[in-house]
From TrEMBL:
SMART domains listed in its UniProt record: HTH_LUXR (SM00421), REC (SM00448)
Pfam families: GerE (PF00196), Response_reg (PF00072)
Organism placement in taxonomy: Bacteria, Bacillati, Actinomycetota, Actinomycetes, Streptosporangiales
GO molecular function: DNA binding
Membrane-spanning intervals of the chain: none
Protein name according to UniProt: Response regulator
Amino acid sequence: MSTESPIRVLLAVDEQQTRRVLAALLSLEEGIEVIAEVGHGDEIVETAGRLRPDVAVIDAEPRSGDGLATAVRIGGHCAIVVLSSLGRPGYLRRAMAAGARGFLGKDAPADELAAAIRKVAAGGRYLDTELAVASMTLPDSPLTDRERDALRLAGGGATITRIAVELHVSETIARGLVSSAMRKLDARGHHEAVHTARRQGWL
């Protein structure tokens, strides 16, 4: 048995059942200790700051919020592995830009997740090879961060008023952000713009 300290892992997955299954499977892996299980953005940030894990495994698409935005907020505390159901090159690039060192599909087997945790804890990267190659030839997103945030909210059903509140801007600016995103994506409406951005992995 190894005498080295275990890798301390924060498991931040939105869906409770998935989180429990992953925690149980990782507990069987030698040298890995799940020290906390959380599900929401603010809770993730608070727990990471308080416990200082070695690695955080983050759900990129929680039902509320933006997993990659959370990754940015805790990147100074630990290494990050992103779990995503969006196997698209653009999304991998966004994850890397957010500070993630690992990127896996949510359906990856537990032993592969464990391998990713060990690799990033040692200072390396663990990426889906095909997505990594594809991401090298993908054009950069034409959207600004604000346009992407506005479009993400619109895609979730938010009104212009709600978008303005969430982004702390006027309704005129909120409407302009959505319109600008539509124009850049050559979309006739925000639903089409959301579809295009998600297909490319830009949202």
